């Protein structure tokens, strides 16, 4: 049986240092010398040095150049031959160039443990300019309907290996992302000419059958970075390389890390202290793996035309292979949610949304604000940060959605309700299960070691008092802490750009 012959690799000495530079793909025009970091461009059989590439930052990725894998479904083999590290308004992300066996290429986008596999796509004619693609606008592309989820400025920070094209180092260029209700992602990179269009879906890392990953010894442990708090001078340890903000464990000041630890650090003091029910650093078991609590924030919301605020709390959980998820504590129960790769089909002003074939009903629309922060976050969170939010509940009762809009991006999140006892047991806090109970809780007697009859009687008395007070109010529908699905925070969606 005839076998496909491998594509011929091209090798030539680096114009900067003389070391060998290899081009495996015929589509690659650029490469970065692994020895002197020279950026070289190939013209026929000649290499020309066009500059020097910046050093890569350690993003703790399990991926590395020359790792191999197989595409889900087709099983076609590929090799990672290039990497670009990019920066946007809300954070950094990485794009890996994958060379397929038949010479075609694909892109594996990586951000905080979320991955999207994309292939080159066709836009009939030419994509409209970015200023004609506002957030939320819908477009018919290749038989599908997509909505604009992000319209931002990005810039190249660093690169390695070989790549078909490179935007100028450090110069901003527009990136527009569109998403569909069946989970597809379409990305338009205006840093290339003509603009590069790619289309794909999110993928789990294990589905790629990867080999040649960085082993445990090669990947630097989260030993952290340390500096002195700019407010009180106490030592501050940053555990995650992706963190864009953190809090001082001594004075609780919120510290901005977006300009790096070598720059002058800015901070905001937080006078009040809110103690999380689940301590930072705790390990919890969800979805069969261990997650660590790395961040906590308290947020409040207010519906348009109402002066009553409600509140909820969010725990940011981290797993090295799976990235980040949010554990949300609201008065109507606990939820485990994560940003979606696609965007539900929904028009502003309507009451229903559709995502992955399931219908959701709008339950609330409100303005959200962050009031207190502790720990580390992969986006630059700050006190007073505001967004426009909408919450949805599945018509069949299976699942919840949340839409959060900030300047430049719309983030959708999807998740499921979790029983309060399950949450307590996940963190081995079953002896404190009563503190986790919310409106979703069952009868008191269902929890071993729960409160006694005296507590039940006191609770009933308090309930009568509260209902009496509410009946005397002027008809306001909410209290200071009401039932809500919450907002899942975060400004990343694991899509093409991040």
TrEMBL record:
<keyword id="KW-0812">Transmembrane</keyword>
<feature type="domain" description="DUF4178">
    <location>
        <begin position="75"/>
        <end position="204"/>
    </location>
</feature>
<dbReference type="Pfam" id="PF13785">
    <property type="entry name" value="DUF4178"/>
</dbReference>
<protein>
    <submittedName>
        <fullName>Uncharacterized protein DUF4178</fullName>
    </submittedName>
</protein>
<feature type="transmembrane region" description="Helical">
    <location>
        <begin position="453"/>
        <end position="473"/>
    </location>
</feature>
<keyword id="KW-1133">Transmembrane helix</keyword>
<feature type="compositionally biased region" description="Gly residues">
    <location>
        <begin position="486"/>
        <end position="498"/>
    </location>
</feature>
<dbReference type="InterPro" id="IPR025235">
    <property type="entry name" value="DUF4178"/>
</dbReference>
<keyword id="KW-0472">Membrane</keyword>
<feature type="region of interest" description="Disordered">
    <location>
        <begin position="475"/>
        <end position="498"/>
    </location>
</feature>
<feature type="domain" description="DUF4178">
    <location>
        <begin position="280"/>
        <end position="419"/>
    </location>
</feature>
